[in-house]
Amino acid sequence: MTQSVVVQVGQCGNQVGCRFWDLALREHAHVNKKGLYDEALSSFFRNVDSRKSDGGACVVGGRIQHLKARAVLVDMEEGVVNEILQGPLREVFDSTQLLTDVSGSGNNWAVGHMTYGSAYREQIVDKLRKAAEHCDCLQCFFLIHSMGGGTGSGLGTRVLSLLEEEFPEVCRIVTSIYPSAEDDVITSPYNSVLAMRELTEHADCVLPVENQSLVDIVNKIKQMSHGGKPGSVIKRDSTVISGQGGLSGAEKPFDAMNNIVANLLLNITSSARFEGSLNMDLNEVAMNLVPFPRLHYLVPSLTPLYTLADVSIPTRRLDQMFSDAFSKDHQLIRADPKHSLYLACALMVRGNVQVSDLRRNIERLKPSLPFVSWNQEGWKTGLCSVPPVGHSHSLLALANNTCVKPTFMELRERFTKLYRKKAHLHHYLHVEGMEQSFFSEAISSLSSLIEEYHQLDATKGRLMPDAPRLCIAR
């Protein structure tokens, strides 16, 4: 029985986190009909008896008294955290898990990383330790943050390095929301590149999610729900896109996008929470998918992305679901994995799916997926028997693929346009502890990352012959 702690930093991180807790509670309520505190719940929730003077935790197997999320919420503005505390999820958090300020980071990585990182260091460490102490067997920290703003990128990556300092043995999986090119934060290329260096140095795995991909997916779903085939109406309360039917009441503008990211987290943790014929430990994700320590950016794709209301339509055949997981339309970043090189790939399947189905589909898809020559069998699979609410089965694919390179190159280009003119630089250099060398180091770190992917790409199609076998002299 293992536990994980979710650390959500900044406005975006806390909004996505809020959707995650909402959907997680909905999923457990759907499965856990008896109201008992079981091992599945204990992976992300504590069961606290408020009648005990010390607020003691209740044992696994007992009745659910009062669920508290294993989470730390950090934001340098109060807005989003206050909203959570006034909303239906307020019971799930208490003041010891929250850290807020009033002024925000002004879209400045240096303010988040240096100013707030130093001012709140002890408090952040204290809250992380408390969360860890409540775990019997802490397996993983999930950090959720955005790359474009000041708190998410600056303080988010400062928290990441504190996690490495304080808990070097515990896996750090980061979900990073990357800004689109039309981002309204003018300094987002600076913030993103400065944050990238920290992610490359201190994370075990990064799941990059692009804002633009989420917008495209949500728009596609809306189109289908209005102009789809007769009868193929998309359910309004589809867990993947809608906030309706959950705890959070009326749907907010970004809920549909945040729900997609929340579902990514639900699926990646499903094996840790529920039974299955092939359980995948969260530590195994990093162990199997990251052959080189710096190249730990894993492209996520999810299927299905919506629920059809009309039951007479046959559910998407299993094989189609596997094909979808490898198509551009289901990826959470805009990239083409089939024209790039796979270093490794994980498939996390939920629902009533047999190991034989899994193997058959891998064999079927393998010829069309270019894998690096020394890791042709680089597949990791997990089967969890509990499907997501509203679906018969689902699939999350995590691909360590060189197709992330264009995203990083585009980011470098946007950074260079600003940096060449030294535009907005003074806002950063006024911050105590911030030096211009941070910019040059960050861009050279990103460039060497791009170069490493480039060198791997160059080996594509060159199958290395097997080393000759040793002959035993007679």
Short description:
The protein is an alpha/beta fold.
Structure class: alpha/beta
Counting DSSP H or I runs of 4 or more residues, the number of helices is: 15
Tell me what portion of residues adopts beta-strand conformation: 15-25%
**Biggest pleated-sheet summary:** 6 strands, parallel
> Roughly how many Å apart are the termini?
53 Å
Mean pLDDT: 88
User: Helicity level, as a percent range?
Assistant: 40-55%
Low-confidence stretches: 241-248, 308-313
Overall number of strands: 12
Q: Outline, from the CA principal axes?
A: globular
Radius of gyration: 22 Å
Order of helices and strands: EHHEEEHEHHEHEHEHHHEHEHEEHHH
**Major β-sheet strand ordering:** 5-4-1-6-7-8
Describe this structure in words.
By secondary structure, this protein is of the alpha/beta class. Helix content is 41%, strand content 16%. The chain is built from 15 helices and 12 strands. It has helices spanning 10-31, 39-42, 79-86, 109-119, 121-133, 150-166, 188-202, 211-227, 255-273, 282-289, 318-325, 355-365, 405-420, 425-429, 437-458; strands at 3-9, 45-47, 67-69, 71-75, 98-100, 138-146, 171-178, 205-210, 299-303, 342-351, 379-384, 393-401. The protein has a 6-stranded parallel sheet. α1 packs across α6, α4 (109-119) packs across α6 (150-166) and α6 (150-166) runs parallel beside α7. The longest helix has 22 residues, at 10-31. The termini are far apart. Mean pLDDT is 88; it is low at 241-248 and 308-313.
